[in-house]
Amino acid sequence: KEEERKEGMTRRDFVKTVGMAAVAGGALTAGLPKNAHAATKLKIGFMGPFTGPASRTGDAFKRGIKMALEDARAAGDIPVKVDGKTLDIEPVWVDSQSSPEKSVKAVTHAVNAGVKMLVTGWHSSVAMACMDAESPLKIVHIGHQGESQYVNFKINDHPEKYQGWFKGWASPPVFAGLYGPPLMHFMEKGLWRPANKKAAVIVEDTDYGRGWGEALMVSLRTAGFDVMPFDVNAIDETEFTPIITKYKAAKVSIVAVTQTGG
């Protein structure tokens, strides 16, 4: 148990967090009709790209969520207490389809179905769109994994407007900037001897991908590498032979890649 806590949030912690967020959601939605508060189930929307180019990520989300809910039930953490009421948790799958426009429609449909809070999500562009769609609806959304630093900027610029939004992952400049120092360490200790200092970066065609690519280029340059301008691929790209051939011809020593769907 202690090791689980050191590694991150346990399933029990997750359920407790959901319960607390539900209380916050109740405070934000106090103006709803009275019959909206008479439910015996707490409908929680779980957002992910369950179909579309990143559906494998969505599948992983769904399997993990189902496991967490099953374990929580077995441990007696579900039903949960909200405002003194005992409520079962009913998952509602909110399919973003990796599209900002479709994700907003999915959120609207979920809210009309009785969802008061949302958990997780994928893609920065989806996060940016959903933030604005959810704000006037007073929805609590925890742990969306849209990483772009521009999500942070929106929250910091208008904290009251986005008071129900809780970002779930660090921005690309934070974690992509961590790649350079280990490479420098490996080279200094003789653990890696690259033929040259040429580097290449491949990113997916998303806000996250471009932000990650920019930050990674800076990180590699601090490690002394001559970095080519990053190449952009479709999110569902699976054919990389042409770009690998290009890098071989350029005698690149290291390639950094981020790709969701391919």
Automatic annotation (TrEMBL):
Family annotation (SUPFAM superfamilies): Periplasmic binding protein-like I
UniProt keywords, alphabetically: Signal
PROSITE patterns: TAT
Classification via InterPro entries: BCAA_transport, Leu-bd, Peripla_BP_I, TAT_signal, TAT_signal_bac_arc
One Pfam entry name: Peripla_BP_6
Span of domain Leucine-binding protein: 42-261
UniProt xrefs under NCBIfam families: TAT_signal_seq
Entry protein name: Leucine-binding protein domain-containing protein
